[in-house]
Amino acid sequence: MKRELISTIIICSATAIFFNVTSCKAWKLNSERKANEKAGLCRLTNEEAENERSHNEAEGLGSITNLEVEKERNQNETAGFGQITNAEAEKERQQNEASGFGKFTNMEVKTTTGFAFVEGGTFKMGCDKDEFVSSYYKPAHLVTVSSFYICDHEVTQKEYSKVMETNPSHIIGDNRPVDACRWYDTIEFCNALSIKEGLTPCYTIDKDKKDPNNLNSIDKLKWTVTCDFSANGYRLPTEAEWEYAARGGRKSKGYKYSGGNFINSVAWYNENSGLKTNDVKTKLPNELGLYDMSGNVEEWCWDWSSKYTTASQTNPVGPLSANCRIVRGGGWNGYDHHCTVASRDGVTPTFSRYGFRLVRSCR
User: Fold this and answer.
1) Which of 12, 26, 277, 357 gives 20 to 30 Å between its CA and that of 243?
2) Phi and psi (nearest 5°) for 188?
3) pLDDT tens across 53-107, in order?
4) 146-165 b/e with 16+ CB inside 10 Å = b?
C-alpha cells in the first residue's frame, strides 16, 4: 500500500512538472508572439522561426524565415524597393532560370522609381466589341509575352529633368508626367538613365544615318535606332507588353480601363482633368499596381504602327517599317474611349505632346 502511494505521488509530481513546463513554454511563445505583433511583424516566434528555417534549408531557399522576411520587407519599403524579400527573390530567380530569362530579380531593380514584375503569359490583344469605335483596335488575337519589369508610373518631369537637365513639358509640375516628348527624346532618356545607373543601354542610335524603314515624310530626323532587348538597361515597352500590363497581366480581371470599369476612378481624361495633366499616382492603380495606364498622358511604345491580323504572335515588336510609332493609353485631353486598354494610335515620331514609362527586360 505504501509502495503504491509513493508511485502515485511520483506520477502526479511528474505530471505537474510536465504541465508546468508546457504552460511556461506556451506562455513564453504567446508573449513572444504578442511582442512581434506589437512591433508590426508577423505572429511567428523564435522557436517557430527555427522550425521554418530548417524547412527552408531543406527546400534550398536558405535559412530565411517569415519573421526575417517581414523585417526585411519593412526595410525594403523604407528604402523604396517595394516588398520583395530575399526568400521571394530566390524563388523568382529560380523561376526565371527555369524559364531561360536569366537571374534578374525584383531586388536587383534598384532605381529611384518603383517597378512591378510582370509575369509573362498569353492574352487576347485588341478587341472585337462594338463599343470600341475604331477598326484599328481589331481584330482581337492571341499574343504571348515573356516576363518583364515596368515602372508603376509615367516618367515625371522631376525624373526627366534630373537626367536630361531640361524639361520640355507644357504643363509644369515636378510630379506631373513629362508631356511633350518626341519618340526620339524617350530613346535618348532611356540610354542616358541606363548609363547613369551603370546598366547596358538597350538602344543603338545613329543620328547621321537616315532610317530606310521610316516611311514618314514629315519626320525630318529619321535617326536609325535599333534595340537590344536582352540588355539590362531601360527601354520603352513594346505595344504588346504595354497592353498586357495595362490589362493586369496574369492578374487581369478583364476591365475596360486599366484598373477598373469606371473611368473616373482610374484615369485623368477630358471630363475630369481640368484640361491639364495631373500628378502621377493620384488615381487608383490596376491589378499589378500600375498607375495612369489609362489617361493623364499618352505613352510612346517601341513599335512601328500597323493593322492587326488574326495570327497568334510571341513577343511581337511591330513591323519592320511604317509611317508612325505607337502611342497608348489616352490622355488628359482625350475622350473616354481613348483610355481603354485596347485603344491605340499611330503618331509621327517627331510629334511632341506625349509621355512614356520605362521597362526593363528580364531575358
Assistant:
1) 277
2) -65, -40
3) 444 444 333 433 444 434 444 444 433 333 344 454 455 445 444 433 333 444 3
4) bbbbbbbbbbbbebbeebbe
Phi, psi (rounded to 5 degrees) for 108: -90, -5
Burial 74-85 (b: 16+ CB within 10 A, else e): eebeeeebbebb
d(CA 127, CA 135): 9
Of 292, 320, 293, 291, residue with least CA distance to 306: 320
Query: How many CB atoms are closer than 10 A to CB 70?
Result: 18
Angstrom distance (rounded) from CA 361 to CA 299: 18
d(CA 224, CA 246): 29
C-alpha to C-alpha distance for 43 and 205, rounded to whole angstroms: 54
Q: What is the DSSP string of 236-285?
A: PPPHHHHHHHHTTGGG----SBTTBS-HHHH---TTTS-SS---TT-S--
pLDDT digits (tens, 9 = 90+) for 208-237: 999 999 999 999 999 999 999 999 999 999
Q: Give tens-digit pLDDT for 92-131.
A: 445 444 433 333 444 344 444 599 999 999 999 999 876 5
